[in-house]
Specification:
Number of strands: 8
Structural class: alpha+beta
CATH topology: Aminopeptidase
CATH class: Alpha Beta
Order of helices and strands: EHHEEEHEHEEE
Helix content: 25-40%
Number of domains: 1
Oligomer: single chain
Length: about 160
Amino acid sequence: MRIRDEEGGDREAVAALVVSAFAGRPYASGTEARIHAALHDAGAATVALVAEDTGRVVGQVIVSPVTLDGGPSGWHGLGPVAVLPERQGQGIGSGLIVEALTRLRGLGSGGCVLLGDGGYYGRFGFRPPRGLHAPGLPAEHLFVLPFGDEPTGAVGYHPAFGI
């Protein structure tokens, strides 16, 4: 398996992968594949990676900028992250997340936020926020990974997440 930058020719495979990975999940909105596409269409994909095994896309992660109190923040939002159901539990998602975070640090990002399961994302250093909040989103699922000091204020995701 190798992790590489997502390319334009991957879009159809990534869309099918994301739909498959989120199908039937209680936390899924059913819009995850459209969010992924909309982030690309808007040029808002700071990091977009795929995991490929024997020529087949088996996982993906995308990272986009988030705002703080309505303005640029230097922070990013992780997700959606997806792995084919039959390949979950094999470290593919972990590899994608680690590589995405490494790239964010290299770009000088201030940190990363996500909505997800703290039990899973805690292994990467994500924790409940101390000074950040995301109005209208479930506070118990908001997690942060500061690369320096954590700012305070309201986190805003790209409009693609409103699909």
